[in-house]
Design goal:
By secondary structure, the chain is α/β, with parallel strands linked by helices. It is about 35% helix and about 20% strand. InterPro entries: Glyco_trans_2-like, Glycosyltransferase_2, Nucleotide-diphossugar_trans.
């Protein structure tokens, strides 16, 4: 599924069957990496987003949510090979699903367009995946992570929702509602995303656990949005997240009634590492 090796010496060449991309002085990879950036009127923030993206990325997919500013033009100037995809629906979930469908890389990384994410952290995400994880989940509350952009109320809400998911689905998450994640593209076939709003990250986190995929949390630091205002609404979107949790729990119970599983299978499906 993945390939990792030390970079070749000057008089050596990688196997003809694969082109290895130097990721760091200690790591090179064969799997191409796609970065998906959903954006709507983020022209002022994109320079901060793109300047931290590693140059070894295979492709950048910008999903434009019908921007009225120069978002698309700025993206093309900053990253000439950027793949621009027009979003036909509405909402962050819809934008991400649209972007995922346009990706050609084996690894997909989700990055917000507001300048809050450090693209240099992509190395940690990719390293976790090529080392055996299926889903690399960013966490602001794991040891080494942090956030400059959460009020006490939002932190409390995130903790409560995260605790609910851990108890109901057997996960061991330290963060729930965070949009910086990476995964192997084949995971999309197992989680079958079908939501349109900000609750998409929660849905992904729940379904990777239900699918029995191996998850590794990556400490991540969330910075303040640089320009503009967020479309996130704590109460409204918090209720949408709660609704997703309840729906997924209800669906799981219905599935168990139809197809009883042994305790061992249930335990395997709930494992998160």
């Amino acid at each position: 599924m993945s390939s990792v090796l030390q970079p070749a010496a000057a008089d050596q060449h990688p196997p003809a069957a694969a082109t290895y991309r130097p990721v760091s002085s200690h790591l090179a990879i064969a799997p191409p990496v796609s970065v998906v950036i959903p954006a709507m009127n983020e022209a002022e923030n994109l320079p901060y987003v793109f300047k931290t993206l590693p140059d070894w990325i295979h492709e950048v997919v910008l999903v434009d949510g019908n921007s009225t500013d120069d978002t698309v033009q700025v993206a093309r100037e900053l990253w000439p090979g950027v793949k621009v995809v027009e979003q036909r629906g509405k909402g962050k979930g819809d934008a991400l699903i649209t972007g995922f469908q346009a990706c050609t890389g084996d690894i997909i990384v989700m990055v917000d367009a507001d300048g809050s994410a450090d693209g240099n952290e992509i190395l940690s995400y990719v390293s976790a995946l090529v080392s055996g994880a299926d889903f690399a989940k960013g966490s602001r509350f794991a040891n080494g992570g942090g956030t400059d952009d959460m009020t006490f109320i939002r932190k409390l809400g995130n903790w409560a929702l995260c605790t609910a998911v851990n108890r109901k689905f057997g996960a061991r998450y330290t963060d729930l509602c965070y949009g910086y994640n990476a995964f192997w593209r084949h995971c999309l076939d197992k989680i079958d995303l079908d939501c349109t709003g900000f609750e998409v990250e929660t849905l992904m986190n729940i379904r990777v656990v239900k699918a029995g995929l191996k998850v590794q949390e990556i400490p991540s630091h969330e910075y303040l949005r640089i320009h503009g205002t967020s479309n996130l609404r704590a109460v409204r979107d918090g209720l949408r997240v709660l609704r997703v949790i309840l729906q997924e729990r209800s669906n799981r119970r219905a599935l168990r009634r139809r197809s009883p599983q042994s305790p061992m299978v249930d335990a395997m499906r709930g494992e998160v590492s």
